[in-house]
Specification:
This protein is α/β, with parallel strands linked by helices. The protein has 13 helices and seven strands. The chain is globular, with a radius of gyration of 22 Å.
């Protein structure tokens, strides 16, 4: 009898927890967050030949339809907020498996190169949870087990919190969130993607924010102390190499790149910038694989205007349109032509 009562209490407690969790998920989990929207739109795509991966720099900086018009590819933007290199690799693997991918354009966000997966937990968990939403039940279970037992997650609160999505993926505008879920549609289109995965913005960066040229970078580096550390962790390095290997094994051209952002030479020490650039160039070297830093593009090939930025870290719609048009042409040209002359050599400064 005592055992039955104890079992009843345990079951009742679990039911209450599940009900509360489901209620909080309904109230707080976004109708379509960055990762959920990316995977939902991806599921609708057919015959993709080019994908883009990376962080919010990718979402804000690449307009697939403009690249396609200039290149002839059929592409989709698989970027998500704070997307880690680990998850970029996962997206690449999935796209190659499900589509006839010819080219991968992997945006390398320097901020993510030294970030461990648990410190970036909200983005990591949101990415996996959203991917699960488009998978069959067995794949969901496999993915979930893989995530919570990952060496960088297991033993942390994240291995439990994954089952409570409102903890890591939430929208505090509850009223709008509930209305969207009840109506089954996005009510505020701002900060949402178009059908190609691009997120537009008409904002223009404050002209008072610091943005220095490559010529000024050495002096800035020698006379300023407030820099962010820039380096590649062993875990990220491993994922970068695996990303390159996946593409090589599947005969997919990999173009890894840093796309323009306004504080690229002011936020990191120039010596660190040079060291990381050289390592990325080495990792992404060899047949059908290359790394390009479009912050180093010469103006006669592509002129980066101050009006192209929405803030120090992202392009706006005007900038993304100009860059994407250029990128489509660049992808075609660089396939058969040496384009090293398009870029300044960072090691000369």
């Amino acid at each position: 009898m005592r055992t039955s009562k104890l079992l009843f209490k345990i079951i009742s407690f679990l039911i209450v927890i599940i009900l509360i969790n489901n209620l909080l998920v309904f109230l707080l989990k976004p109708y379509l967050g960055s990762s959920a929207e990316m995977w939902t739109l991806y599921k609708q795509k057919e015959d993709l030949t080019l994908i883009y991966t990376g962080s919010s720099q990718c979402i804000a900086g690449i307009r697939p339809d403009y690249v396609d018009s200039a290149s002839g590819y059929v592409s989709y933007n698989m970027g998500t907020n704070m997307q880690s290199v680990h998850n970029s690799k996962r997206a690449i693997e999935k796209a190659i498996k499900e589509h006839d991918i010819k080219v991968v354009f992997a945006v390398i966000d320097f901020q993510t190169l030294s970030m461990d997966r648990y410190s970036n937990y909200r983005a990591e968990a949101s990415f996996q949870s959203a991917e699960n939403s488009i998978e069959d039940p067995l794949t969901r279970i496999t993915n979930t087990i893989g995530f919570v037992t990952d060496p960088e997650i297991i033993g942390t609160p994240g291995s439990v919190n994954f089952f409570f999505p409102w903890v890591y993926d939430r929208n505090t505008d509850i009223a709008t969130n509930v209305k969207e879920k009840l109506s089954g549609q996005v009510l505020d289109a701002s900060k949402h993607r178009d059908q190609y995965g691009f997120e537009s913005s008409d904002e223009v960066m404050d002209s008072n924010l610091v943005s220095i040229s490559l010529e000024e970078a050495r002096e800035w580096s020698n006379n300023t102390t407030a820099f962010q550390d820039l380096y590649i962790t062993d875990s990220v390095r491993k994922s970068l190499k695996e990303m390159a290997e996946v593409c090589r094994e599947n005969n997919v051209r990999l173009v890894a790149a840093s796309i323009p952002y306004a504080n690229h030479f002011s936020v990191y020490r120039l010596d660190d910038y040079q060291a990381v650039t050289n390592e990325l160039t080495e990792i992404f070297s060899g047949d059908n694989c290359a790394y390009y830093d479009f912050n180093l593009i010469k103006p006669e090939y592509f002129e980066i205007k101050s009006s192209y930025y929405r803030d120090v870290g992202h392009l706006n719609t005007e900038g993304a349109t100009a860059f994407s048009t250029f990128l489509g042409e660049f992808l075609v040209t660089s396939e058969t032509t040496d384009v090293s002359d398009y870029f300044y050599d960072i090691n000369e400064y």
